[in-house]
Amino acid sequence: MADTENRSTPPQGGPMLFMLSNKLETAMWLSRLFTVYCSILFILPVLGIQEAANFYQRALLANALTSALRLHQRLPHFQLSRAFLTQALQEDSCHYLLYSLILVNSYPVTMSIFPVFLFSLLHATTYTKKVLDAMGPTSLAFVRNFLDKLTANQQNILKFIACNEIFLMPATVFMLFSNQGSLLQPFLYYRFLTLRYSSRRNPYCRTLFTELRILLEHLVMKPVCPAFVRRMCLSSIAFVSRLAPTGA
């Protein structure tokens, strides 16, 4: 997984003892499950559109809490220094803490909730398996099968998340021109996207950018492509390439 959790062996004292002996991981697990719950109720607004918007904010706030806890776990000794900030910005948990803060008060967009929903679902699987092991080696077999399927499709899910991260950038610009976003949001989101592009733990954003560029260049170089469309696309590719972080 892109941002692997600490792996502890479930004790033989049942699930409650296991969770109490790993309080920080348990807190992150519960906040991730709450993020998944709120995300589902936003994506499937069974309680009404207005309530769905509230679940959108709750999902992002829960994800911000999870990210803050994970960042504390990765960097437990906070320092008010430039070196510490640089180190923090290299952590994926810091990226998604910023992501949540950037979008929490924005117009609710389904595309923006999928990354926090899917990351929470993926990262909750390992700890959920540990809780199930503490309950018994054969407990809740249908849940174990679902978690195994999630793990088997992890690479495809991470690519889908990266796709959402990329295409949310033009979406923030569109929201600005449609009076559904703030002037600052596209600039802040661009900063988030550069951090994801430079991520050491999760290369999928950078890989997908490369794959999209190769695919688009292949399409526009075909003879059937009009010359003005080719020039426009190649100019856009060159512009986006110049925006990419150096040394990533």
Write the topology of this structure.
Elements: H1 15-20, H2 23-43, H3 49-74, H4 82-88, H5 92-103, H6 110-135, H7 141-152, H8 154-177, H9 185-197, H10 204-220, H11 227-243
Helix pairs in contact: 2-3, 2-6, 3-5, 3-6, 5-9, 6-7, 6-8, 8-9, 8-10, 10-11
List the defining traits of the structure above:
248 residues; 11 helices; globular
How many extended strands? Answer: 0
- How far do the termini sit from each other? 20 Å
Q: How many separate helices?
A: 11
> Which class best fits the helix and strand makeup?
mainly alpha
What percent of residues are in strands?
A: under 5%
How would you describe the shape? globular
Low-confidence stretches: none
**How large is the radius of gyration?**
20 Å
Question: How many domain regions?
Answer: 2
Fraction of residues in helix: over 70%
Average pLDDT rating: 86
- Give the biggest beta sheet: none
Order of helices and strands: HHHHHHHHHHH
Structure description:
With 248 residues, the chain is mostly helical. The chain folds into two domains: 15-202, no CATH class; 203-248. The protein has eleven helices and no strands. It has helices spanning 15-20, 23-43, 49-74, 82-88, 92-103, 110-135, 141-152, 154-177, 185-197, 204-220, 227-243. The longest helix has 26 residues, at 49-74. The protein starts with 14 loop residues before the first helix and ends in a 5-residue tail after the last helix. The model has no long low-confidence stretch (mean pLDDT 86).
